[in-house]
Specification:
Structural class: alpha/beta
CATH topology of the largest domain: FAD/NAD(P)-binding domain
Radius of gyration: 25 Å
Largest sheet: 7 strands, mixed
Shape: globular
Strand content: 15-25%
Number of domains: 4
Length: 567
């Protein structure tokens, strides 16, 4: 198999030579580099490469090519290479220039480029290569070529094979699925011998036959059983809020364990591109954010109990007793609830029967390559739905975004509204809902209803992605933890008068009606449903945990500012 290509296009020979030099010097061992001097030459070369079934990983284009914006060339790339990362090269002097920033924003919003990059300085320009490496990692993950990719082989797309892909997605683990009858599937099976399906092959070579979720956690080295242990802090939930609390709790000396019935990332792992997260101007995926945060917390000393379901919690003589579904117990001085929320079920029986066979809750990032050239419908009006629609549009023939609200702006950030409205291949149907559908073993059609007129329409559909509403994971909590009618946990000033009176003090802003138990992120009533907000609440929760624990300790045990002295 020939190596993938990195293509640079510039009509300025000297500037093109600089880019070509950097690409060849750093990447020629694993990629072929192709430097082209005009947009016309680039279009002809791309067409020839597509006809020859070559792989193009990266296309870099100058701001201006042959008197036209370089984004005009980049806009043509997805039709031939939907996975290729498209990058606009800009001069260092244009960085921070308002017109250039506006042009880049408009180009990304209009789907004419994916990224931007400042031209390389004289070598070694590690900033240039850091960006290029991140682009290549994104491409590799899209093509299921990322390092340490897990192989899943099954007899069908749905059933347990789909459940395994969901588990791996929640674990933010790169994975690839193959049907056993495909060429790739047969090649994997030939190397493992006869096995029960579905089968999972770990990067270490370990083969798991029809594994349980816990088997996957153990094989990946992330499973611990915290039963019988005493901790300063137990965090229930491993989404952005829980990971943030884990990082700050462990880094500030608290003996910390994070427990989750799944694995890292929570609902954030379904986000294919978070572009408004502070410090990441080129954006990042929810899975990448989760992986980085997990490693950060782990290095600071946080421990993780994955595939461990918390069944109950209550005040005990030695602290808060956290009961696990296995029957084990963990005792904590403080607890942070960060269980987040999941997408609500559609509740249409005919479509629920096709879950995993064309009907998906979330999963747009991992399932997108499977809908290449097909007609896709996506239900949802929040940021995650907008991000998913843009991601799916790179592959699908057409993406129809179905929104119950009258406008996109009702639940989506302004920058995403602009991107969705300008993106080619995306149709938006507001004031609409999915009420029925079906197919013979796989989704074939949907029934849409106009909410204003009540009229219905049957449309052909190859896939349906559902990203609707939020259902908090709070059904397991005892009645002593107050919740609103939607199941979201009440905290601080939002508690009832009776609950506040029972404290004998003012509850902390994130404290629930059960003293010593705090809530952070999407699970909390009134929280802002954004990744950055969840991360912020996770860190604030630790500050309040310190206040709780400080009341138990003599002053000599505390460091400056009331923070526990280092151990």
């Amino acid at each position: 198999m020939s190596f993938p290509l990195l293509i640079a296009v510039d009509d300025d020979a000297a500037l093109l030579a600089d880019v070509e030099r950097e690409l060849r010097n750093r990447y020629s061992a694993d990629y072929r580099v192709c430097a082209l001097g005009s947009a016309a030459e680039a279009r002809a070369t791309l067409a020839r490469l597509a006809a020859d079934c070559e792989d193009v990983a990266l296309v870099l284009a100058a701001e201006q090519l042959d008197g036209a914006p370089g984004t005009e060339l980049l806009a043509d790339v997805p039709a031939l290479f939907p996975d290729a990362v498209r990058v606009l090269l800009i001069g260092w002097g244009h960085l921070g220039d308002p017109p250039t920033g506006d042009a880049i924003f408009d180009a990304i919003a209009g789907g004419r480029t994916d990224q931007y990059l400042v031209r390389p300085a004289p070598p070694p320009d590690e900033q240039f290569h850091q960006a290029v490496s991140s682009f290549l990692l994104s491409w590799a993950e899209e093509r299921r070529r990322a390092p340490h990719t897990i192989e899943v082989v099954g007899e069908e797309w749905a059933g347990r094979a789909y459940e395994l892909r969901e588990v791996l997605g929640r674990c933010a683990m790169p994975h690839r699925f193959c049907l056993a009858t495909s060429d790739e599937g047969r090649a994997i099976l030939a190397g493992t011998g006869e096995r029960r399906l579905p089968m999972v092959v770990m990067p270490s070579g370990t083969v798991l036959e029809n594994p349980t979720d816990a088997d996957i956690a153990r094989a990946s080295g992330t499973a611990i059983d915290p039963s019988g242990e005493h901790y300063d802090l137990v965090i229930v939930g491993c989404g952005p809020a829980g990971l943030s609390a884990g990082v700050y709790g462990a880094s500030e000396g608290l003996r910390t364990v994070v427990i989750d019935s799944g694995s890292i990332g929570g609902q954030a792992t379904s986000s294919s591109s978070i572009r408004n997260y502070l410090g990441f101007p080129r954006g990042l995926t929810g899975a990448e954010l989760a992986r980085r945060a997990y490693q950060q917390a782990w290095v600071f000393g946080a421990r993780f109990g994955f595939m461990q379901e918390v069944a109950h919690l209550e005040q005990g003589p030695d602290g808060i007793v956290v009961s696990l579904h296995t029957g084990g117990l963990v005792v904590a001085r403080a607890v942070v609830l960060a269980t987040g929320a999941a997408y609500r079920r559609l509740g249409v029986p005919a479509l629920e029967e096709l879950h995993g066979a064309g009907v998906f809750y979330g999963a747009a990032a991992s399932e997108a390559p499977l809908v290449a050239g097909k007609d896709v419908y996506l239900v949802g009006g929040a940021n995650s739905a907008g991000q998913a629609a843009l991601h799916l549009a790179r592959y699908a023939n057409r993406v129809t975004l179905v929104v119950r609200a009258a406008t996109l702006a009702a639940g989506m950030s302004h920058y995403l509204v602009r991107q969705v409205e300008q993106a080619p291949g995306i149709e938006v149907r507001t004031g609409t809902e999915v009420v029925d559908g079906g197919g013979d073993g796989r989704l074939e059609q949907l029934v849409l209803r106009d909410r204003a007129s009540g009229t219905t329409e049957t449309v052909a559909a190859d896939a349906l992605f559902l990203m609707i509403g939020a259902r908090p994971h709070t059904g397991w909590l005892p009645p002593t933890v107050e919740r609103d009618d939607g199941g979201f946990v009440r905290t601080g000033a939002d508690l009832s008068d009776a609950a506040r009176a029972a404290f004998g003090r003012d509850p902390l802003p994130l404290e629930t009606s059960l003293p010593g138990v705090l809530a952070a992120g999407d699970v909390r009533r009134g929280s802002v449903k954004r990744v950055a907000s969840a991360v912020g609440e996770g860190s604030i929760a630790i500050q309040q945990v310190h206040r709780l624990l400080a009341a138990e300790r003599p002053v000599s045990a505390l460091g400056a500012g009331g923070v526990p002295a280092p151990r």
